[in-house]
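Model the whole thing, not chain by chain.
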Amino acid sequence: MKKLINRVDDIVAEALQGMAAAHPDLVEINLEPRYLVRRGAPAAGKVALVSGGGSGHEPMHGGFVGMGMLSGACPGEVFTSPTPDQIYECTKRAHGGAGVVHIVKNYTGDVMNFEMAAELAQAEGIEVRSVVINDDVAVQDSLYTAGRRGVGATVLAEKIAGACAEDGGSLSEVADVVKEVNESARSMGMALTSCTVPSAGKPTFELGEDEMEIGIGIHGEPGRERTKLVPADRIVDRLMEPVLSDGPFKSGDRVLAFVDGMGGTPLLELYVCMRQVAAVLEDGGYRRERTLIGNYITSLEMAGLSITLLRLNDELVRLWDAPVHTPALRWGV
Amino acid sequence: MKKLINRVDDIVAEALQGMAAAHPDLVEINLEPRYLVRRGAPAAGKVALVSGGGSGHEPMHGGFVGMGMLSGACPGEVFTSPTPDQIYECTKRAHGGAGVVHIVKNYTGDVMNFEMAAELAQAEGIEVRSVVINDDVAVQDSLYTAGRRGVGATVLAEKIAGACAEDGGSLSEVADVVKEVNESARSMGMALTSCTVPSAGKPTFELGEDEMEIGIGIHGEPGRERTKLVPADRIVDRLMEPVLSDGPFKSGDRVLAFVDGMGGTPLLELYVCMRQVAAVLEDGGYRRERTLIGNYITSLEMAGLSITLLRLNDELVRLWDAPVHTPALRWGV
C-alpha cells in the first residue's frame, strides 16, 4: 500500500489538522470527538446544516463547510460512519437557535448514527430535521444500504440548502429544499480501478486490465455489471441512460450536470467525458443551464467518474448561484 | 491501459470541446490550431498573458484562462510542447494592443517553440515578452531541460501576473512580476506511482511496491533519488529542506505555501501533508500568510505531491488576493 500517510490510525485526525492549517479563515476543528464547523460558529438565528460520513470522499464533507454551505461536518474513519457522539457534539456546536438540518447519505450506519444523534440533540431541546439522500440509480439495495445509495446529489443539496439557510430560511424551508434536490436528482458512477482503504492495506476489489464496473458505489460496492472497457463516450451513454430514464427528467427540462471524478481520474479524462454528457443532453432536448466538473465526492484514489443530473427551476438556480465560500467550492465572494 | 478516452489521437481535442461545453461563460476554444482564449478576447488595451505546454497537467493551463489570470493557453499533445503555430495564433487572438507576455515553463521544446512564436508575432508588430519559469530545485539538468525545470511557480505567476494585467499594468510591469514570482519561488515534487501517457500505453517508469521517487519531474523525469517509502511527515521534510535552503527564504519571511497533488493523490493525503508543511514553516519562523492546496499542476494519474513556496510582499499579496474567475481558480467574483 502506497500512501502519503503517517500511522493508519492517525490519518483522519491529521488531515483535519491539515484542513485547519490550510483554511483557518473558514473552518474550526474539534479533535475529540472529531468535527469541523464554520469559523465563528454558531451563526446566531440561522438554521444550521450538518452533514458527515466516512472519510475518503474528500472534499466531501469537510471541504463544504463555510459561508453558504455546511455549518458543520463529521468525518468518520475512512469509509466508516461517524459516531452518534461526533454528530451530536457537532450539532450542538453548530446550532444557532433556529434548528439543525441533518443531510444524511443513505448508508445503514450513517442513517442509524445520525438518527441517534438527532434524538440526543432533540432531548436537549434542539430541533433537528433529517433528510436522507438516495440519488444513485445503479442498484436498489447494496452492500451497506437498503434502498438506493446517496452520492452526487449530496453535494448539490448541501450547496443549495446552505444558500437557503444563509438567506434566513426556516427549518422547514431548508429541510424541504434538501428533499426537493434529492427528488429532482439522479446519479450513477463507474470505476476503472479499485481504491485501497488504509486499514485494509489492499485493494477493495480486483478488476481485470480490460474491465470496468458500471454502477459502482463510492465504497467500491458492486454495481450493475462488470464488463469490458469501452470508449469514454459509450461509458457516458451507459450512465446517462439510466439516470435520465429513472429520474423526473423530460425533454425540455432545465438541468444542472455534475461530472465528478472518483479521485484518481485525470481532469483531462473528465473533460473528454464532459463533451459526451453535453452532447447526450443536447440531443435529448435538455437545457443544461449549470455545470459542475471536478473531484467533489471521491473514493480515495479510485479511477472513474459519476454523473449527476439535477432538474432545475428558478429558485434552485438562484440558490445554486448564491455566494459560497468553502475550501472546495467558492464563488460570488 | 485504462483510461476514460475514445481514440488516443482525439484526447486533447475532445477535452478542449469538453471545456468549452463546461465553461461557455469563461473560455472560447479554437480547434485548428488548438488553443483557448478568455471569452470575448481580446481585452482591448490590456496586456495579454499567454501560456501553454503539454497536456496532461490539467487544470494547468487551460483551467487558468479567464478574468484575472491567463488570456490564452495552448495545449500540446500529452506531455508534448505546443507547436509554434498554436502559440502564434493564440498570441494574435489574445493580443489587445498592449503587448503579450509569454509564460514558459523551462522545457527545451516549450522554450524553443515559444521563441519561434514570439518571433512570428513580433514580425507582425505584436510586442512580446517571454519569461521562463524554473522553480524546481530537484535537479540542475533533466530529461527535457537544461537548467531547472518549471513547475508550481507557474500557477502562482499566472495568477499574480494576471491580476497585474487586469489592473492595467504595462507590458514591462506584467513581465517583471512574472520574473519576480519566479525568482521568489522554489518547488520540489515526489511520486509514489508513475502515470501512463496514452500514446505510450504503459507506465512511464516503474517503482517498487515500497519505493518512491524524490524530486520527480511532472513528466516522470528522474529526480534526486529513488528510496524506500517513508511516513508522510518525513517525505514533506525531504521536500521542504531543499526548497527552503535553495530559495531566497529566511526566517521571518512572509510566504505562500502551495501543496499540489500530482493528479492521483487523494485530497485526504494532501491534507495530512499540509499539516507537516505548516509545522515545518512554523518551526522555522516563517509567516505563512497564504495557502493553496489541491490539484493544480498534475501529471495525469500520478500519485504524489509537490510543494512550492513563494516569498511574499505587500504587492504580491494584493495581486494574489485580487479577483480571479477561471475554471480552476475563482475568488472575489
